[in-house]
Amino acid sequence: MKKSLILLALLAIPVYAYVNDALSFAHEAALPYVKKGFSVREDAWGGDLGVKDQQAVTAQLFKGNEYWFCLGTDVRGAVLTIHIYDSKGKLAEAESWQKGRFAGARVVPAKTGTYYAIITVEKSPEERTGWAVVYAYK
Description:
Blueprint lengths: L1 H33 L4 E11 L4 E8 L5 E6 L6 E7 L7 E7 L2 E6 L5 E11 L5 E9 L1
Antiparallel strand pairs: 1-8, 2-7, 3-6, 3-8, 4-7, 5-6
């Protein structure tokens, strides 16, 4: 039993490390918006995905605010995208971009509610690619 717990703990360490590294890149992607007066929320999401896999994360957004969702990975050569949808599945972003290991999407909600950020690993040299998302508002 103890050996299995130790092995499980050791296997979990690399996942945590690369999500932590990806979080640094997500914050780096958000930096231009911070300079424009946006505040980065403490909320962050992360994980790892295979190529062409997707992950949805939810956020409560408020009408009257503007948001930037910023995605990053520490995997050199990986291409990830992020797109924001409303609760009816309609694309809600005003704009999005992707450059190298970074991506972003801006949304100005038409109404207060739950929105979904869909993260996709489009390509990667790794079998699993760690990613993280932060969001900023003003």
